[in-house]
Amino acid sequence: MSARNRELLGLIPASLLVTAGFAGVFIQRSNALSNVSLTYGALFLGLCIAAHIFIRFTLPRADPYMFPLVAVLASFGLVMVYRIDPTLARQQAQWFVLGLVLFAATIILLRDYRKLERYRYIIVLISLGLLVLPRLPGIGYSANGAYLGVRIPGLFVFQPAEFAKIGLVIFLASYLRDTRQVLVQGGHRFLGITFPPLKQFGPVVVIWGLAMATLVVLSDTGSSIMFYGGLLAMLYVATNRLSFVVIGLIAAAVGFWYLGTHIPHIHARVETWLHPLNPRLYHAPLGSYQVANSIFAQAAGGLFGQGFGQAQLTLPGGGPLLPFPQTDMIYAVITDELGLFGAVAVLITYLLFVARGFKTALLARDSFSTLLAVGLSAMFALQVFVIVGGVTRVIPLTGVTLPFISYGGSSIVANLVLLALLLLVSDRARRPE
Amino acid sequence: MNTPIARLFAVVILLFALLVFFTSRWTIFQASSLNNNTLNVRTLLDELKIKRGQILAADGTVLAKSVPAPGNTWSRTYPTGRLFSQPVGFSIAAKGEAIGLEQSAGADLRGVQTGLSSIFGQLSPRPVGDDVYTTLDSKGQRAAVQALAGMHGSVVALDPSTGAVKVMYANPGYDNNNPPKSNSTTDTTFNRVTQGHYAPGSTFKIVTATAAIDSGMYTPNSVINGNSPITVSGVPLANDGGKSWGPQTLTTAMTYSINTIFAQVAEHVGRKTMTDYMKRFGFYSKPPLDYPSFQLAISQPYVTPSRAYPPASSDEDIGRIGIGEGGVLATPLQMAMVASAVADGGTLMAPHLVDRVVDQDGRTVRTTNPTVYSHVMKPSTAAEVTKMMEKVVEEGTGTAVQLGGISVAGKTGTAQIGPNGSNLTQPAFVAFAPADHPKIAIAVMIDESNGGFGGTVAAPIAKTVLQALLADGA
What we know:
Strand order of the largest sheet of chain A: 1-2-3
Largest interface: A-B, 61 and 48 residues
Distance between the termini of chain A: 21 Å
Number of helices of chain B: 16
Order of helices and strands of chain A: HHHHHEEEHEEHHHHHHHHH
Distance between the termini of chain B: 92 Å
Radius of gyration of chain B: 27 Å
Strand order of the largest sheet of chain B: 3-2-1-6-17-18
Largest sheet of chain A: 3 strands, antiparallel
Shape of chain B: elongated
Structural class of chain B: alpha+beta
Helix content of chain B: 25-40%
Strand content of chain A: under 5%
Oligomer: heterodimer
Helix content of chain A: over 70%
């Protein structure tokens, strides 16, 4: 079977899922199976088939599993967001359409994505500029002490970090392709550890120092962890030097320890992470209420969950029982309604997508492509880890979106662009010589 | 670059395994402790969505029902309010507060919500609980309210052959539609019937007489010297009015409630045997009532109101205990159980409030089968104690309860409370009727009277309630 036919077959589960999911939500809501659920399923299937045909013509050899996996995640996300708030789901569907347009534009404009290397310094400057935007007066805004978004009044709201992550990966892939040999050979051994040569490593340190500083200023710890982890992953793959990663991790540990103890907003996050069930923290403003109710919601789900639409999200008198259910806390809602089984199924879907990304990196024939695929895949995996880890109390909770599932236009659009880049790399890698 | 990529993927798998592990930790391993955490309001909110079943009196009068509340939830109202608030209690699901039957029958009222949980949610969209039919008699309950006429005290009536609670009323009570935030002298959730500690006074002589006769040490015709005063535990004990009765039978001593005779009998029977019979009657443990345990008090001798004597302690004044003094404290429910055991031929049936549980389709889910709590005495002893108690009503201290054609067996009690020389008493009356085939055992205990006696204050109340219950065909 050809790759594209496999992709087409892979879309069937996604369509079934979205139809069954909407049916479930409708039954729960009105005790009647509305044909709207079928309409939603059909529309979504139509969009996916359109995208599939587009890939068939433009990238015939690209990995056949990535798009269906994204379709499964996106359709599942659409159902979850619909169940939380139908209005948001309609917007989410519109963002998905816009995302597909940008997805197509990326594929058409960057058919030879390697030309991106030429613009790497422009790209990195734009990315850093994007990161600073939320701090600019007038258009920036903050939530929970972190500066995450940009609001153009009356037009739209977007989270620049979602796009900056792609730009930073492109820059690093290109820069490391140039310098990886020097980084390995020019290293100095000291105390049995290989330290990278400062000259070539310098720009990486400077730019990442800037990125980190920006993030500290923005207090966006989640993105900070994601970017730093992505940098280390790419550095490791480029140099095959574990010592670089160890040095990086120690530096990060010291940095996060310092931030965790010296920046009140981050320190509070750490406290609520360690003691969410402490009544004093629970009742404090911006305290552990969110984290505690996240694990309470998961406990309510148990092994199989309470069923679609059964999770309790609001208090009877109004006010949230589970704050931010459609964004930060959507994984807790999934666990509440579909249980451990549903949650693990979602995680496995993400893992399969990441596996396909790494597979693409393995197949790629030039270092830039490999590093690009590794960086995008690792960043994607880390984003899932940071938010799900926060919700499940593996790490302190920080606000990043759950890719393709959380409500949020920037996230959907940026991750569809990320998918387009991976498919471009994959198509080139699988082209016969 | 292949090896680092493979290793990197292994790290990603490890990180995801960590996510799965932590998700399992909350959903499985620590789920029950999280679900029961006091900060977690989910269980309470789930409760609000359940339409709890009704609580009904034996005649079908609705005592508690669910009414729709905003947000797809339900709240409770109690059409009979104060009349039945002590047995019914109240439930405020949003606060997780419940007492009375609302608490103890909560599982039935909620029903078993095992709705098949699936991707489509629970198959039964609106969970509904079962109805609980109680053994309570509306007419008897109303009669108790009228008869008490605002006096502070308790009335409790049982069916001796089954243990069914027919009447449970205490004043002051409260309106369970609007439970008091803190108890006051006019509004209290404190249920005197099951929680109130009264000095049983001479009503306790039923217990002493049972121990004396059933142990074989005395018969109703045993003659004991009834002179007054005598020294009991080193302190003089006098009869009512200081009267010296001379040698009298145990029956006469019961009829006229001669303290000195019963004190001697109790001392002679001894701590060990007395304690044994008290335990058989239900003293020394919480009554086996289907009612919240925290609303049940233990009847037994107390050193202070909060510190009990160990059973058969050598420190206790068994002579005074034998006449219902000496620190012995009993709930009205306990004294009704004493009457019930004698009435039922010596067998004490476990008291119960729930008669049956009926689901929304009218099917009976569960019926309470009468169960024996203990065999207190031989049937012959019961017959002899009954005769002695009949005499009390026929010609002794309890004539006020005479019901004309129906013979009543009873015992008065008038405990002195307050400092020496004060006139304050706790009048009590314990009885069952008809004496030959008992249908009702009753205990009436009044908190405080200024010089009133069990025979003058408590017995008329018992009479009114007995009349209402017997006329109702109980």
